[in-house]
Design goal:
Blueprint (H helix, E strand, L loop, with lengths): L2 H26 L8 E5 L6 H8 L3 E5 L11 H12 L4 H9 L7 E3 L14 E7 L8 H11 E12 L17 H10 L10 H11 L2 E10 L2 H14 L8 H4 L1 E9 L9
Helix pairs in contact: 1-2, 1-3, 3-4, 5-7
């Protein structure tokens, strides 16, 4: 088997797993995809999750500041393999393969999470993201914007990886240093190395936007050995996180399960 074929099989296998996780999270929120409006933020280089969910009856859209267009050298083979692995009828997968593109199958929004200008107010039943919100440039604004587009009574599921993406073995190293240096670093890397905001702050932003937090799945943690090493370095660097209790820095991965309360106005 060629390296390309192995890569496609691995990517399609991962996409099936991600779709399964998304469906489990949606079910856990008490929501149903059939007939729902579904928006996936930051889907990556394929839209497998949204296409599978569309095949279960949802009206699906994807949004990303770097939205990937159809690549005839990759996507036909990928979606063929995804269809094979999914193993159940999926009309949207059939449609994109027949059409050689997404037109008429998925709504496409080439937009940042902070500026979903083409998504109407209160129009989405389910907003979903996986390892996306740590890359936005303005997390408080992203929370307000996602709240704006969520329908009253609608739900959100967001997995956020708070680690330093330059070195996952040293997940808090990007917190070292003062705020001006950190802001310059985040701007220079276009947010790709992760966010300095901590889970407790993200929780405050989500609540401040108007969301009710239904549940939090804590799924990433810094080790005791690493915390013992990094804590004095944070204090010496002048970082505002140097004054934080170590236990508040330990958590590095969270899935936020949210609901927009009914009859609540947008905070934006």
């Amino acid at each position: 088997m060629s390296e390309t074929n192995q890569s496609i099989i691995a990517a399609a296998t991962h996409a099936v797993a991600l779709a399964g996780y998304a469906l489990d999270h949606i079910k856990g929120l008490g929501a149903h995809v059939d007939g729902a409006s579904f928006l996936e933020l930051g889907p990556g280089n394929n839209f497998g999750t949204s296409l599978i969910i569309a095949g279960l009856g949802a009206r699906c859209a994807v949004a990303d500041r770097f939205l990937h267009s159809w690549d005839p050298s990759y996507h036909p083979a990928f979606y063929e393999e995804l269809r094979r692995l999914w193993g159940a009828p999926c009309a949207p997968l059939d449609a994109v393969l027949d059409r050689g593109g997404y037109e008429g199958v998925l709504a496409m929004h080439l937009e940042w999470a902070e500026e979903l200008d083409s998504v109407p107010n209160e129009s989405v039943d389910i907003v979903y993201s996986n390892a996306v919100l740590e890359h936005v440039m303005d997390l408080p604004q992203a929370c307000r914007e996602v709240f704006r587009v969520t329908r009253p009574g609608g739900v959100n599921s967001h997995q956020v990886d708070f680690r330093f993406h330059g070195n996952f073995d040293r997940p808090l190293d990007h917190l070292i240093g003062d705020e001006s240096a950190a802001a310059a670093f985040i701007a220079s890397t276009n947010g790709e190395k992760g966010t300095r905001w901590r889970p407790v702050e993200a929780r405050q932003f989500l609540r401040g936007a108007g969301f009710e937090i239904l549940d939090e799945e804590h799924n990433g943690f810094a080790t005791d050995e690493y915390l013992a090493d990094v804590a004095p370095r944070l204090r010496a660097s002048g970082s505002r996180y140097g004054r934080w209790p170590v236990d508040e820095l330990r958590l590095t991965g969270v899935r936020f399960m949210l609901r927009r309360p009914r009859n609540q106005l947008s905070a934006s």
